[in-house]
Amino acid sequence: MIFADSISDYTRSLYVIYGVLFDGTSSFRAGSRWAPEAIRKGSYNFEPYDYDYDCDLANVPVYDMGDAEFGNVNDMIAELQPTIFRVIKDGKVPIILGGEHSVTLPCIRALAQDTSVTAVIFDAHLDLKECYLGNMYGHASVSRNILGCSIPLIQIGVRSGTRAEYQYAREKSTFFTMDQIRRDGIGNVLNSVSRLIESNSVYLSIDMDVLDPAYAPGVGNPEPYGLTPFELRTAIRHLAPLASGFDVVEIAPDYDMGMSAIAGAKIVRDFVVAHSNVHILLT
Ligand code: MN
Ligand code: MN
After folding, report:
1. Residues 6 or more apart in contact with residue 6 via CB below 8 angstroms
2. Which CATH superfamily is domain 15-282 in?
3. Ligand nearest to the CA of 29
4. Distance separating alpha carbons of residues 150 and 166, to the nearest angstrom
5. Which of the ligands is closest to the CA of residue 145?
6. Segments making up each domain of the chain, as ranges
7. Tell me: the pLDDT tens digits for 207-222?
């Protein structure tokens, strides 16, 4: 099954969807390797037409490149980076369906090969652990590894981390907690984010647990007091035009009969609509 309305071939496409079936370092609830299939299935729930943007997704050149499956995190990182680099080299925007959050690192590295990048990550968790359960490249360390590549990092929706992680974040990262978002409003936070971006390109990563578990219970590590879907859509509409790469990760569809995967499919569609509105329809 391909993602709904992904009617383009590779050559003519401007967006390339790619599933990464990997949840090998998941600590609490595994199962995100089943997410790409559930997200694709969920994508058929929606109309091709977006009223707010007057955009018909059936006219946007999206190609679904299928899935890659990996047995361990080192293979995943080594093999995913060149694949995504080729997609970017070919002038396309990669849209990664995770899989767990560790898949973000090789995708950002691929983008950083040829241009300056800022990583903008929506996540309940800081993911700044030096090592977790014996693994330095697990999903709980992805943000740490991004900073390790000297890529500037902006984290939004944070509400979970160890004391050491928060200390590390204060030194090396820029982060906006859920309490800040509640106090200042998502619009003001997004304006601050825009002012912080100095790089030529942005990689946007959505760890689905940034949403409140009331809206997205089917994730690896549910964390209460999260974003509403409306706030996340506002953020995607704001940041998508700046992005050269995008992922949705950490959905574990077995825990909620695929409801979070349906939300993930909608987020992918919202990203494509908001990005193409600037990069295709108005140019
Ligand atoms: Mn994460
Ligand atoms: Mn998380």
Report:
1. 15, 17, 62, 63, 64
2. Ureohydrolase domain (3.40.800.10)
3. 2
4. 18
5. 1
6. 15-282
7. 999 999 999 999 999 9
